[in-house]
Amino acid sequence: MLPDVSRLHVRELLQVEASVVEELRQRGLVRTNNKPLGDIAEQVVLAARGGVLEPNSTKSHDVTDPSGRRIQVKAMGGRTAGKAGKFSPFRSFDFDTAVFLVFEFQTFDLAFAREVSANDVEAVSQYSAHTNGRQPTLRQIENAGIDVTDEMRAAYEALDGEAVEFRFVL
Q1: What InterPro entries does the record tag this protein with (predicted)?
Q2: pTM of the model
Q3: Would you tell me which of 48, 97, 138, 159 could form a disulfide with 155, CB atoms 3.0–4.6 Å apart?
C-alpha cells in the first residue's frame, strides 16, 4: 500500500520525490534528475508577484505580473557541483526580468533568490553551442541583480497554506 502524501507540505513532497528519483537512478532505471522543481518555482514567483502563469508553449517567459512585466523563472536544486552548477539555458531574451531560485539539497529550503534583468543575464552568461543558448552558473547569478530571497521565501511558505490555483492566459 502506498503512503498517503496528501497531508505533506510542498517541501516534504519534493524531498520524497528526490528520494524516489535517486533510487530509480541507483537501479539504473532513469538517467536524468528531471524534477517538478521548475513548476514549483513558477508557482512561488506567481504567488509572490501575482499575475498569470503563461502556458508552457509561451516563448521566453513564465509569468506575466499585473503590470505586464514578463518574468522568466529558473530553479536549481542544491547540487554537489556547487557554484559551478548551471541553470537551464536561455535561448531568447524576450522577457523583462528573470527570477532565479536555488533550493537546498535534500531539504528543499529556499537558499536564495535573485532577480536579474534580461540584459544582465545575457551579459554575465556565455553562449554555449552545445546547448544553443546562454547557460548561467550559480556563481554568475549569485551577485547579479537584486536579492529577492525574503519575498520568495514568504511566497514559498504560503504554498503550504493554500491550494495552488493555476491561472493561465488563454
Answers
A1: DUF6998
A2: 0.82
A3: 48
